[in-house]
């Protein structure tokens, strides 16, 4: 079976085709048209190109920066705003004469790592993407867990747990609430906190490098970051106790996270015991598009 996965982002559309063994046999990236009909046309043209090139008909899965509402059947919450309010899966299915599966891109990340990535073989996988923003997805037995409202895994838009006095009511989030996890532990939040303390850096990776070089402000900022990350993930462990947590996004490339986080998690997990593995992703920026291909299962 040929599986096509598409990552529909705000600036680019990326397509991969996987064979039965998960081997990549085709890849292409194009700019995203910033208009709905043009986006649908571009997706149809990409699928047609790969199928004609490989002389096979494929299943199609798409990851989007939003969700399909289970109540209206329309895209919502996408930062690619021109697809909001449209039945993207239905429109594409009609053009391609087959069913198209669509899932949130963070859920696709979790599926990718659960099927044949860093969490292969694990039943319950929590995948957290920590980059410019902060999102998460849940995969159970290699399949997306959407939830009844279609928002399973919206971890970043809960308040930072066990908030301290100097943290309360200090940040605002684009979602309309204050003190969301995303505003503290995203790469953007990490940099914001470091700058507020007098540091100068443009990314979390840069702060980590400064910490390794002995910079005291960077060390203090990382200590705050890792404690906040531990609190945020402890909430997940207390609620769903996943078999493994996989980290993605730019911040996941900070190696110190994987040595320091296990020291902090037991401070917040019920019973003060925690051996939940927290691991770095296997496929990097390709996890989402591969996960879209695996929406049809293995």
TrEMBL record:
Superkingdom of source: Bacteria
Gene Ontology MF terms: fructokinase activity
Keywords: Carbohydrate metabolism, Transferase
CDD domains: ASKHA_NBD_ROK_EcFRK-like (cd24066)
The protein's Enzyme Commission number: 2.7.1.4
Record's keyword annotation contains GTP-binding: no
One Pfam family per UniProt: ROK
InterPro entries per the UniProt record, alphabetical: ATPase_NBD (IPR043129), ROK (IPR000600), ROK_cs (IPR049874)
Protein's recorded name: Fructokinase
Origin species: Shewanella scandinavica
Gene it is expressed from: mak
């Amino acid at each position: 079976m040929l599986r096509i996965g598409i990552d529909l982002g705000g600036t680019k559309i990326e397509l991969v085709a996987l064979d039965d063994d998960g081997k990549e046999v085709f890849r292409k990236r194009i700019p995203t048209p910033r208009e709905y009909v043009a986006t649908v046309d571009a997706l149809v043209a990409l699928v047609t190109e790969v199928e004609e090139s490989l002389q096979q008909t494929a299943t199609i899965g798409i990851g989007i920066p939003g969700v399909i509402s289970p109540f209206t059947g329309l895209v919502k919450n996408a930062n690619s705003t021109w697809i909001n309010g449209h039945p993207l899966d239905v429109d594409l299915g009609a053009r391609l004469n087959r069913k198209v599966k669509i899932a949130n891109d963070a859920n696709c990340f979790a599926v990718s790592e659960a099927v044949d990535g860093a969490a292969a073989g694990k039943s319950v996988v929590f995948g957290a993407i920590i980059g410019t923003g902060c999102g998460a997805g849940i995969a159970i037995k290699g399949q997306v867990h959407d939830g009844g409202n279609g928002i399973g895994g919206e971890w970043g838009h809960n308040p930072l747990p066990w908030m301290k006095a100097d943290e309360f009511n200090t940040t605002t989030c684009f979602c309309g609430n204050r003190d969301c996890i995303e505003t503290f532990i995203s790469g953007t939040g990490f940099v914001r906190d470091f700058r507020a303390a007098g540091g100068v850096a443009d990314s979390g990776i840069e702060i980590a490098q400064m910490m390794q070089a002995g910079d005291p402000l960077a060390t203090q900022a990382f200590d705050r970051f890792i404690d906040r990350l531990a609190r945020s993930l402890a909430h997940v462990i207390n609620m769903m106790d996943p078999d493994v947590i996989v980290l993605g996004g730019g911040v996941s490339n900070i190696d110190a996270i994987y040595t320091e986080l296990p020291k902090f998690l037991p401070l917040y997990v019920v019973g003060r015991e925690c051996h939940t593995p927290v691991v770095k992703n296997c496929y990097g920026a390709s996890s989402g598009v591969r996960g879209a291909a695996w929406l049809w299962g293995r």
